Amino acid sequence: MADWLTPDQWSAVVLSLKVSFWATALSLPLGVAVAYLLARHEFWGKQVLNGLVHLPLILPPVVTGYLLLLTFGRRGAVGEFLEQSFGLVFAFRWTGAALAAAVMAFPLMVRAIRLAIEAVDPKLEQAASTLGASRLWVFATITLPLILPGVIAGAILAFAKAMGEFGATITFVSNIPGQTQTLPSAIYSFLQVPGGDSKAMQLVLIAVAIALAALFLSEWLGRAVARRISGS
């Protein structure tokens, strides 16, 4: 593939894979926790939390990117604190691209995991609790093994969404070749220059292949969840 793609194209593909991996890996524990909270607990503000989780799906991606810039930019309250305290910078860096991708993919991850949790019979968890097991131990030994295919499916969907994220990313971190130019940003850039159609099409084919692979794998894991739950 390195011979087929130009250095700029290859850089965009590698950066997209890097951004998508970290966006998925770092948000997965929080996604599992939020999904479990929404699926298994009733509390004041539950609908507010559910709305906030799904807000990136409703807002225009550019608006989400702008809000991220206001919050995590170098002059933002959170961004300034992170830079001064830990030297962590998000705006116009690949780390910001990962943050934007994680925010946009988070609703899909949470929804997939939440559906998997809701498919598990609560009586199984209650039975383990009556035997003296702690809530954390019940989750680790009963719930998590049953929802693992759903967790993996949610992670795959989030990874695919992160690979295709454009609006929030370009607003938050711009489109800097070799630094923040991801696969969608590179496609956009090639379409803006004469003769760039062929290079853009090569990246489009790669994006389509990754998206289809993620979709098929997610569907297969979804059926695996249904078979596992029905057989338990």
Tell me briefly what this model is.
The protein has about 230 residues and is an all-alpha fold. The protein has helices spanning about 5-40, 45-60, 60-70, 75-85, 95-120, 120-130, 135-165, 165-175, 185-190, 195-230.
Q: Mind explaining what this structure looks like?
A:
This protein has helices at residues 7-40, 46-58, 61-72, 77-86, 94-118, 122-130, 135-164, 167-173, 183-191, 197-231. With 232 residues, it is mostly helical. It has a single domain, classed as Orthogonal Bundle (MetI-like fold). Helix 1 (7-40) packs across helix 9. The protein is globular, with a radius of gyration of 20 Å. The mean pLDDT is 87.
Low-confidence parts:
none
Tell me which CATH architecture applies here.
Answer: Orthogonal Bundle
Order of H and E elements: HHHHHHHHHH
How many alpha or pi helices? Answer: 10
The CATH superfamily is MetI-like
Give the end-to-end Cα distance, rounded to a whole number of Å.
44 Å
- What would you call the shape? globular
Q: How much strand content do the residues show?
A: under 5%
**Percent of residues in helices:** over 70%
Using the coordinates above, name the CATH class.
Mainly Alpha
Give the total of domains.
1
According to CATH, the fold-level topology is MetI-like fold
Calculate Rg over CA atoms.
20 Å
Number of DSSP strand runs: 0
Main sheet summary: none
Structural class: mainly alpha
The average pLDDT value, as a whole number, equals 87
